[in-house]
Design goal:
- Strands 1-4-5-8-9-10-11-15-16 form a nine-stranded antiparallel beta sheet. Strands 3-2-6-7-12-13 form a six-stranded mixed beta sheet.
- It is mainly β.
- It is 8% helix and 52% strand.
- The chain is elongated and about 85 Å long.
Length: 341
């Protein structure tokens, strides 16, 4: 028997620098993009403190491996999306943008998360010709979807007529997902009984994690607010009459202060959002040509479930010149786990 214990610390930093002057406008044409980048600057930090303990043990025709891990993580981000205002044009020759987006206010957020889990597996030599690989894994996160977040009361009151109660958090009703059990089974069988022709295959359930950016958007959009505005040459149909001075960040923020733009966008995350998972399976045959050469034919399949999707429940009707659900908010970005592949 062997017992391996590991302690680990990791600091990860991912940064997008702003290589132009702060507030430089970005112009987005169908075939090109000029000026400032919409998603810069950004600066993300992740600190990870981890303990791993793995045990290896052999008994008769079995080779066992089991272990557990626990990780404590700290996330911190500064994310100034659309600090450089972005202007969108319908054609490459347009001189007046049809839409602009700008962000402002407080861009920082910091959170903590705990990840833990265990696994056990057995490589079992059932006979000289058959080997089975059996395993089970379980993973858990304490704060995968910002569990202590409290939906502002105004948002709850305004949007309760349109959305199920699960889209509003009271800081206690987002329970960690406890059912991420992932069984695995594999086999290899010597069809020829002479170490020449082998049939092999396997099946497993694999869980993934939501990237923290999913939950951070929910918080950040309440502190670093993103505004959408719409322009035209005449200022009709719910648009603002264009003036070249609106290429200046301060000028578009004046439009925000004057209430001439859409209210800021928000995010809604359901309390029962499940982690993504896949069912993976394979079946194949291998033929030895020489002692160190073989040919193989196999089929591998992957079916994905609970994948993150998002939609704007309050999209803008261009003909009406307003949002379809409510004028109290801009985009209402609703997260679901309805994606399958």
């Amino acid at each position: 028997m062997m017992n391996e214990v590991r302690l680990n610390f990791q600091r990860y930093n991912w940064e997008i620098a702003c290589v132009v002057l702060w507030g430089t406008p970005g112009k987005i044409y169908p075939s090109s993009q000029l000026g400032g980048f919409s998603h810069a600057p950004q600066n993300w930090f992740q600190d990870r403190y981890a303990l791993y303990d793995d045990i290896f043990y052999s008994w008769k025709d079995h080779n066992f491996k089991a272990g557990f891990y626990i990780e404590r993580l700290r996330y911190k981000t500064t994310q100034m999306l659309y600090g450089n205002p972005q202007y969108y044009y319908e054609t490459d020759t347009d001189t007046i943008p049809w839409q602009a987006i700008v962000g402002a206010e407080t861009p920082e957020v910091e959170k903590h998360n705990t990840q833990l889990g265990f696994f056990i597996q057995d490589d079992w030599n059932v006979s000289r010709y058959l080997t089975l690989n059996l395993g089970l894994r379980w993973d858990h996160e304490s704060n995968m979807i910002n569990s202590d977040f409290v939906t502002p009361e105004k948002i709850r009151m305004d949007l309760s007529p349109y959305f199920d109660a699960k889209y509003f958090s009271d800081g206690k009703n987002r329970k960690p997902y406890l059912y991420a059990f992932a069984p695995r089974l594999g086999f290899i069988y010597d069809l020829s009984k002479r170490d020449k022709t082998f049939l092999f295959g396997g099946f497993g359930v694999y869980y993934d994690r939501h990237v923290w950016n999913v939950a951070s958007d929910e918080i950040l959009r309440l502190t670093w607010k993103v505004y959408y505005m719409y322009f035209s040459a005449t200022g009709t149909s719910g648009t603002i009459k264009w003036d070249d001075k609106y290429y200046n960040r301060d000028e578009v923020l004046k439009l925000v202060a004057q209430g001439k733009t859409d209210p800021p966008e928000i995010f809604l995350i359901p309390t029962d959002l499940r982690p993504p998972k896949t069912y993976q399976f394979s079946l194949g045959i291998r033929q030895m040509i020489t002692s160190d050469m073989f040919i193989s034919l196999s089929y591998t399949g992957v079916c994905g479930y609970n994948e993150i999707t998002t939609y704007d429940a309050n999209y803008r009707d261009a003909k009406l010149g307003k949002r379809v659900l409510t004028t109290s908010y801009g985009r209402i970005n609703v997260w679901t786990d309805a994606g399958n592949t």
